[in-house]
Amino acid sequence: MSLSPPSDIASSQPAAATDGHRNRRLGPDTVICHAGRDPSAHFGVVNPPVFHASTILFPTLAALDAKAEAKVRYGRRGTPTTFALEDAVSALEEAAGTVLTPSGANAISTTLLAHLDPGDHVLIADNVYGPCRHCGNDVLRRFGVEVEFYDPLVGSGIDRLIKPNTRLIWMEAPGSLTFEMTDITAIVAAARPRGIVTVVDNTWSGGVFFKPLTLGVDISVQAGTKYISGHSDLMLGTISCSETSYERVKGFAQRLGICVGPDDAYLAQRGLRTISVRMRQHHANALELANWLAKRPEVTRVMYPALQTDPGHELWKTHFTGASGLFGFVIRETDRQRLAAMVDGLRLFGMGSSWGGYESLLLPTDPRILRSATTWREPGQCMRVHVGLEDVSDLIDDLERGFERLGR
Ligand SMILES: *Cc1c(COP(=O)(O)O)cnc(C)c1O
């Protein structure tokens, strides 16, 4: 059985992907449809089959002795199901290789721990996803790593924060809850000559609208839980690496015994096939809702870099080719009871952690408690909205009634 993807879309050479006839590079949507799949290896079945496996049997002593060369050797080390997803995500992220982890939070901790030794200094953006901050404060510090948070708007000022022992810079753009854009190019320009590893949490773009590795970032991390899976029904993390960082991360993940279940890997690759059309619709729907919110008297601010009025709009345009369905907004100061009346009565927006599925979500947030290098001073109640694939007119109706209840 052949385990390799069709040669013209092999993830290890995304730059060389061609249609084989006119020597033209395949478009990104085509790559997402075909990368990591090899129907001819599985009786013509379109999707890679689900291999449930722990023990892999070796028929002879000679085969057992050559175990280290076998691509499939033990369930924890991967199966054709997980290899297919790794290859597909590598093609999406234009990465040399991808390591799968059981959650996005684990992709973060594994990437950090794979690179940082006692005495190292790490710079983490102040608007990162909460559990990334907690990993720095509660795990890395315990292991003697010097953890420093930086203003995500620092730009080339990052130079002044870099120390001789700085080993890694963590970025997230736009950041969780407040959606500031970070100047990734400026940070990479400061880090690269000094050999500092750069990482971007790329969950927001799903890897469709932003390819950090093409800007010289070493590693792009995603919560595959979100847009890659796209259906709110599994947990997954992806660590997509440049050639130079792949072996380190893969080896470290192996030492920690990290692996993912076959059913989740299968579902994630299934979700991935439609990610580009989903993302385009999320973008269109979110833009329409954001523009509507911006005109509401209850709303004092909308935080969505795709809006021309957003302070991060220019940076977003230089790095991204589109925007996802997730953004923030602030409503005028209100009491808990009125807020409850607004959100409890919503019919289409659900309330809960995570996002990236086909359905809309709305969540009150509090960015103040997740900052240390900067202070969140915006008065009013912060909200995070995930705009799903519903009809926007229905979403607007639902929110309009919510605002009526808020005002009562
Ligand atoms: C949700 C999220 C994660 C963590 O993913 P889980 O799969 O929930 O552990 C990481 N980064 C960002 C930006 C996220 O939104």
Automatic annotation (TrEMBL):
Q: Which keywords, in A-to-Z order, does the entry hold?
A: Lyase, Pyridoxal phosphate
An example of a Pfam family matching this protein is: Cys_Met_Meta_PP
**Care to name a GO molecular-function term for this sequence?**
pyridoxal phosphate binding
Coiled-coil portions: none
| UniProt modified residues of type N6-(pyridoxal phosphate)lysine | K226
**Which reaction equation describes what this protein catalyses?**
an S-substituted L-cysteine + H2O = a thiol + pyruvate + NH4(+); L,L-cystathionine + H2O = L-homocysteine + pyruvate + NH4(+)
> Locations of Polar residues compositional bias?
1-15
Required co-factor(s) are:
pyridoxal 5'-phosphate
Q: In which pathway does it act?
A: Amino-acid biosynthesis; L-methionine biosynthesis via de novo pathway; L-homocysteine from L-cystathionine: step 1/1
Give the start-end ranges of region Disordered.
Answer: 1-29
This chain's protein is named Cystathionine beta-lyase
Query: Matching NCBIfam families, A to Z?
Result: cysta_beta_ly_B (TIGR01324)
| PROSITE patterns in UniProt | CYS_MET_METAB_PP
Task: Give a GO biological-process term.
Answer: L-cysteine catabolic process to pyruvate
* Catalytic activity, EC: 4.4.1.8
Keyword hit for ATP-binding = no
Q: Which domain of life is it from?
A: Bacteria
Family, as annotated: Belongs to the trans-sulfuration enzymes family.
